[in-house]
């Protein structure tokens, strides 16, 4: 049978296909600011959105040099081609060789324009951004650099954890928050606080506190800083603390699950309950956290760690949960091989999809880290840390990540309130649905049925069959 379109029908079909593809990939602000409805992230109209993401801390650094901006474009292009819709990256570089903030309140305009470019390109590629505001560790300055600045100004501070209690240091941090959040993008002309490309602000990368293992110091700091960020931002964007998920001494804390039973100075439940904190985060590095342990021990830890946090988040927080870092160490002469790494990816992503498809709180994640081949932009090899995934040269990892992105995207657009009502019904057994195998949810079946009816009617009205 030959199908011949009537005049104009081909153009309509092409436009519909292009528009449909663009709508399916909508992200990076196209759906408006991301909000929270219970344990779900939502966009305009209260429709759910799920996140398949990656970490690329280096984006601003590369973009600060116009000659290396091709790396940012290539990263977003490759990521969006695999359906990734979230990038977690640094909105800080405190002191050092390539500072965003060279001293308290003094900023390098070239670095800031690099961040401007990153935000503009993320929006162009349909990718949301989770912007982190400082580091617990010494890389790119972090809390110790803030303390050094205060000490150099004559204040009696010596320990990195003074960051959490010193009024001077806290004023430095607040000034940085204000400088970033109120920045007007030189590429788009939009203030960061008004830009829906920015999904959320992260107070700190992996806050820890040796000075107070109970978590009290970090707790008080988050309780002060999260509302402050909200005030400067005007409440437009979401805020998270940046925790790895380590438990403490507080109520509902499963501290026996911490790696080696060690305290890290944080409380998972209590800190995520703080005013101004909109969603919870955990990280997953079982091979590093349990260095020297067997593969079976690491697998058992992963299962217990994930289940515990999903349960705690649903039962005691009622907020969404993201795995904002997960990775498996690869390195010449040691670590896992790619087969083991890809198995780890499968296990993590299956856990995310299992929760998301049931309407649970674990609704996305971001692998550590996305890199490019050094042939794209010189200097990328210097950023290798053993966790890198180079999509263009690792077809199996790219396939795993791409399939997961498609499956999460198939859950987008559900009514969050209707999803909550369905969750109250008796749960049926879960089976991961592969594309082409059926098993659509009610929320997807009705729109698909209507679409099929529309296409059938369109063909009958606009085509001559002979």
From TrEMBL:
<dbReference type="GO" id="GO:0000272">
    <property type="term" value="P:polysaccharide catabolic process"/>
</dbReference>
<feature type="signal peptide">
    <location>
        <begin position="1"/>
        <end position="24"/>
    </location>
</feature>
<feature type="compositionally biased region" description="Basic residues">
    <location>
        <begin position="420"/>
        <end position="433"/>
    </location>
</feature>
<keyword id="KW-0326">Glycosidase</keyword>
<dbReference type="InterPro" id="IPR001547">
    <property type="entry name" value="Glyco_hydro_5"/>
</dbReference>
<feature type="domain" description="Glycoside hydrolase family 5">
    <location>
        <begin position="34"/>
        <end position="368"/>
    </location>
</feature>
<dbReference type="GO" id="GO:0016985">
    <property type="term" value="F:mannan endo-1,4-beta-mannosidase activity"/>
</dbReference>
<feature type="region of interest" description="Disordered">
    <location>
        <begin position="413"/>
        <end position="440"/>
    </location>
</feature>
<keyword id="KW-0378">Hydrolase</keyword>
<dbReference type="Pfam" id="PF26410">
    <property type="entry name" value="GH5_mannosidase"/>
</dbReference>
<dbReference type="InterPro" id="IPR017853">
    <property type="entry name" value="GH"/>
</dbReference>
<dbReference type="InterPro" id="IPR045053">
    <property type="entry name" value="MAN-like"/>
</dbReference>
<keyword id="KW-0732">Signal</keyword>
<comment type="similarity">
    <text>Belongs to the glycosyl hydrolase 5 (cellulase A) family.</text>
</comment>
<protein>
    <recommendedName>
        <fullName>mannan endo-1,4-beta-mannosidase</fullName>
        <ecNumber>3.2.1.78</ecNumber>
    </recommendedName>
</protein>
């Amino acid at each position: 049978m030959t199908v011949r379109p009537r005049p104009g029908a081909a153009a309509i079909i092409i436009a519909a296909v292009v528009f449909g593809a663009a709508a399916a990939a909508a992200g990076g602000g196209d759906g408006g600011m991301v909000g929270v409805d219970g344990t779900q992230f939502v966009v305009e109209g209260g429709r759910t959105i799920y996140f398949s993401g990656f970490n690329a801390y280096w984006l601003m650094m590369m973009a600060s040099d116009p000659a290396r901006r091709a790396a940012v474009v290539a990263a977003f292009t490759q990521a969006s081609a695999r359906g990734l819709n979230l990038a977690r990256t640094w909105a800080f570089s405190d002191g050092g060789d390539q500072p965003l903030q060279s001293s308290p309140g003094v900023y390098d305009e070239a670095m800031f324009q690099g961040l401007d470019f990153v935000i503009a390109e993320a929006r162009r590629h349909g990718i949301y951004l989770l912007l982190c505001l400082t580091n617990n560790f010494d890389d790119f300055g972090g809390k110790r650099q803030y303390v050094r600045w205060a000490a150099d100004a004559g204040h009696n501070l010596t320990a990195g954890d003074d960051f959490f209690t010193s009024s001077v240091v806290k004023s430095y941090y607040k000034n940085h928050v204000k400088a970033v959040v109120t920045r007007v993008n030189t590429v788009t002309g939009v203030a960061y606080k008004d830009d829906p490309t920015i999904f959320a602000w992260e107070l700190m990368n992996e806050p820890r506190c040796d000075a107070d293992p109970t978590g009290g110091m970090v707790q008080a700091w988050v309780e002060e800083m999260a509302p402050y960020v909200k005030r400067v931002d005007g409440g437009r964007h979401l805020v998270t603390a940046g925790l790895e998920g380590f438990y403490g001494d507080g109520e509902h804390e499963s501290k026996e699950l911490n790696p080696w039973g060690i305290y890290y100075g944080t409380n998972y439940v209590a800190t995520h309950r703080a005013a101004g904190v909109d969603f919870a985060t955990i990280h997953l590095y079982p091979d590093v956290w349990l260095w020297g342990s067997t593969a079976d021990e690491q697998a058992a830890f992963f299962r217990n760690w994930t289940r515990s946090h999903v349960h705690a988040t649903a039962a005691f927080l009622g907020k969404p949960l993201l795995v904002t870092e997960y990775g498996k160490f690869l390195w010449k002469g040691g670590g896992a091989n790619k087969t083991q790494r890809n198995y780890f990816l499968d296990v993590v992503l299956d856990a995310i999809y299992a929760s998301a498809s049931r309407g649970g709180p674990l609704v996305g994640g971001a692998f550590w880290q996305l890199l490019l081949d050094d042939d794209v932009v010189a200097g990328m090899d210097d950023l290798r840390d053993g966790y890198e995934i180079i999509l263009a040269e690792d077809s199996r990892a790219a396939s795993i990540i791409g399939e997961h992105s498609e499956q999460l995207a198939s859950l987008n657009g559900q009514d969050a309130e209707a999803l909550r009502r369905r969750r109250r019904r008796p749960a049926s057994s879960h089976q991961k649905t592969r594309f082409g195998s059926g098993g659509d949810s009610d929320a997807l079946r009705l729109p698909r049925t209507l679409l099929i009816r529309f296409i059938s009617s369109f063909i009958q009205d606009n085509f001559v069959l002979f």
